[in-house]
Fold each of these.
Amino acid sequence: MVTAVIFGFAIFCGWLVFDVTKHKKLTLENVISSLVVGVVGALGWWLLDLIF
């Protein structure tokens, strides 16, 4: 579970940095989309951890 949270946070930070460099500014839309991607990544990692 802890690894899934760490993985989700890393995905969130990476996606946010990618969006900010792409759009040259930080917007609420970028933060929310990064948060959604981070949560989906964490849930996927958690499910993979449960299966294997």
Amino acid sequence: MAGLMEDEVFKAFSTYAAIVILKMMLMGPMTGFYRHARGAFSNEEDVSGKSAEEKKKQLRTHPDVERVRRCHLNDLENIVPFVMVGLLYALTGPELSSALLHFRLFAGSRIFHTVAYVGALPQPSRGLSWILGMLVTFSMAYRVLSTVLLL
């Protein structure tokens, strides 16, 4: 295990995995912020202690809140596979430059995806950033399978 922590590719993977995981984790508090700022809550207990009229007004959806929430779900669908495949990829012994390219492209694509999603940038900005992240993950998966495939 100590040798793994000395490996440059593993260190790079750990760095970029931590960045995208932290980005994903920040989406929860960001959703809460948007809910409070827009006065749009989804659960009865979120508006407990309010008058019936106030509850009716605040128990609703808001496009900004839904956009952030969907972005968070999209992160779960993309960052979790990246972390799992990226770990296996790092263990295949790729060149550092190739690994850094994969990790940086994925992290950049996810950060831009969030900016495009939350900022409601016009398509195809969000779609292209999503595709880039998926292609990076597929590329790493291909390397893993082509290196260790045993059927």
Amino acid sequence: MVIMKQARHPEPAEMTLIDVMGALSDPIRVGLVRVLADGRERGWGELRAPVAKSTLSHHLRVLRDAGVTRTRQEGTRCFVELRRSDLDARFPGLLNAVLGAAHGDDVGSQVGLATDTIAT
């Protein structure tokens, strides 16, 4: 029998501003949040970033551990979604401010989806 370890997700009351801001201090992680901001759950294989798969996995773990995202495992596949409502309840306005600034400064634009086409 195979036992799958379930990822731990902090409850909203356990989320700290320092952990969330630390998770959002990397352009790749900000890019992942920008991709997930549409509210859809995405499979890890759908996400594209200019880093190795192991590094992408690390970035997703940092976001999960801070409470920014929720990860769900289904068989051998992992899915991730932004915890917008939890973040908005715990830190009102923070996520919108980060997303607005990231868009304005083009932070994280190198992260996207496998289905995205690159304009030449």
